[in-house]
Amino acid sequence: MGRDLAIDLGSANTLVYRQGDGIVFDEPTVVALHGNGEVVAMGEEAWQMLGGDSGNVLAVRPLREGT
């Protein structure tokens, strides 16, 4: 194993690259949080919640402009 993975935590998407296979994971960099801070969704599922009225759930992009 060792050094055969690369992870890109991008502002828009998070990517995982595996040597020999290419990109094996590509999901939006979004997290949906319940009012108590509990993570309820990540990636595509959380992205679907952005801008919607999900009650006590807040979807956020934890990285902005590369930071």
The coarse silhouette is elongated
Percent of residues in helices comes to under 10%
The total strand number stands at: 6
Straight-line N-to-C gap: 29 Å
Largest sheet: 3 strands, antiparallel
Give the neighbour order of strands across the main sheet.
1-2-3
What does the average pLDDT come to? 87
Low-confidence stretches: none
SSE string, helices as H and strands as E: EEEEEHE
Radius of gyration: 14 Å
Structural domain count: 1
What percentage of the residues does DSSP assign to strands (E)?
35-45%
Estimated structural class: mainly beta
Short description:
Helix content is 7%, strand content 45%. With 67 residues, it is mostly beta strands. It is elongated, with a radius of gyration of 14 Å.
Overview of this protein structure:
The protein has 67 residues and is mainly β. It has one domain. Helix content is 7%, strand content 45%. The protein is built from one helix and six strands. The strands form two sheets. A three-stranded antiparallel β-sheet has the order 1-2-3. The protein has a three-stranded antiparallel β-sheet with strand order 5-4-6. β4 and β5 form a beta hairpin. The protein is elongated.
